[in-house]
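If you are new to this repository, start here. Below is one unmodified record pulled from the training split, so you can see the exact layout before writing a loader.
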Amino acid sequence: MTPETEIPQTRWPLLIHDQTRLEYTRLLWKRPHVRKRLFAHWADPRHPYAERFSEQYLPHVVKLLEASPADDQALDTALREQGLSLRVIVREIPPVFGSFY
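And here is the target side for that same chain:
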């Protein structure tokens, strides 16, 4: 692994499943048709987190997914000023499940 691709061992502190959720969702987010499907899935009334996500966390999750991993520390600092953290926002990325994806 090169320093550019090396996975940080401690991040705010993100557990491995949090780190995986962030990295995998960022990969999916780069594909416009997948991004559109994710938005539709997360906003679907059948999704158990749809209301909470759209009312509270949508702008933060979008900002996180569109940011470069190199900006994560600065993003965490900005989120902490709002009473949040990178870890909180990563955990609010809604899961994808069910037959309606």
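Two things worth knowing about this chain: The mean pLDDT is 88. DSSP finds five helices and no strands in the chain.
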